[in-house]
Write the structure tokens for this entry.
Amino acid sequence: MARKLGQSEWDIIELAATVLAGGPPPADFAAKLTVTYPARFNLRSAVELAELGSEFQGFLERAGRCPAVEKDIARAMIRDILPGLDEDQYAEREEAADLAIDAAADRMALDAESLAG
């Protein structure tokens, strides 16, 4: 399938070169071209990404009752919302989420102590 798509891509390039040249393209035109794709892409719209970001922030705001599970969920959400990052970038974002969840758990513990005391 990928091979067929790659061939179709070159067929389209050749057709475009024919149109642009007003006839058959120069014999060496393909040697002068490179086809590149972005290393990172996201098929979500900006609105969808903003909505997911808002949902993630809401998740973090409500976190703290079960930090170990919430951290696993946050990691899965980060990787789903932001595909294509490298492992160092994921680690940075996961660490930030872990810190937010730990802080929420600490606040809940303090609130429980002040209610009990």
The chain has a mean pLDDT of 88. Helices lie at 2-21, 46-62, 67-81, 87-116. The two ends are 67 Å apart (CA to CA). The first helix runs from residue 2 to 21.
